Amino acid sequence: MASDPTETAAPDEGARDGAPTATESTSSDPASADAAAPAPTLESVTAERDAAQQQAQEYLALAQRAQADFQNYRRRAEQERAEAFDRGRGEVLMQVLPVLDDFERAMQALPPERRDEDWVQGLALIERKLRAALEAMGLERIAAEGQPFDPWEHEAVLHEERSDVAPGTVAAVARPGYRLGGRVLRPAQVVVAKEP
């Protein structure tokens, strides 16, 4: 059977649907997309490297600042903790010092003939133990009698005319003073000599 020359060939099904024909490129290969992108130049690579190095330097500087800030914070926190401990210890000792003063006054007021009694020896032992415990905590008695008057360590409660002691010198101690860790916890109350 002869074919009719007026008949035309049926178009490809894919072409009717709008899909690309075999002659059209359907390649989605990434290698071909990279080939289409321009090749990086030496200047652009150098600029990218310099930008990356600058950013790395900025991050390094930030990290170093953060580390220094943390070390400063840790040092400050340790110092504040030590100061708070010293303050607390000082407050406790200030509450105990009157007890120590009372022990001293009681021992000084004892008649000499009763000093050998057992209960008196027991009180003396308690006083020594209390004093040793306080000294172990860092409590130190301020030397006052016979020393020049120091307003940082002594509190003058009386000026007394004395010929046996140089003027401006502590003649007697009314209440002992104490230091804690090098700072005055309680100044000594003293009698200061003056010229007759």
What does this structure look like?
The structure is a single chain. This protein is α+β, with helices and mostly antiparallel strands and 196 residues long. It folds into 2 domains: 43-137; 139-196, Nucleotide Exchange Factor Grpe, Chain A, domain 2, CATH 2.30.22.10. Helix content is 50%, strand content 16%. It is built from 4 helices and 6 strands; from the N terminus they run H-H-H-H-E-E-E-E-E-E. The chain has helices at 13-16, 30-36, 42-109, 118-136; strands at residues 139-141, 154-161, 170-175, 178-180, 183-186, 188-194. The strands form 2 sheets. A 3-stranded antiparallel sheet has the order 1-4-5. A 3-stranded mixed sheet has the order 2-6-3, with no helix packed on it. A hairpin with a 2-residue loop joins strand 4 and strand 5 (183-186). Helix 3 (42-109) runs antiparallel to helix 4. The N and C termini lie far apart (159 Å). The relative contact order is 0.08.
Strand and helix map with partners:
Layout: H1 13-16, H2 30-36, H3 42-109, H4 118-136, E1 139-141, E2 154-161, E3 170-175, E4 178-180, E5 183-186, E6 188-194
Parallel strand pairs: 2-6
Antiparallel strand pairs: 1-4, 3-6, 4-5
Helix pairs in contact: 3-4
Structural class determined from secondary elements: alpha+beta
Number of helices: 4
- List low-confidence stretches: 22-27
User: What's the Cα radius of gyration?
Assistant: 47 Å
Largest sheet: 3 strands, antiparallel
| Succession of helices and strands | HHHHEEEEEE
Cα(first) to Cα(last) distance is 159 Å
- Mean pLDDT, all residues: 82
Estimated share of beta-strand residues: 15-25%
The 3D shape can be described as: elongated
Query: Helical content, roughly?
Result: 40-55%
Query: If strands are numbered along the chain, what order do they take across the biggest sheet?
Result: 1-4-5
Q: How many domains make up the coordinates? A: 2
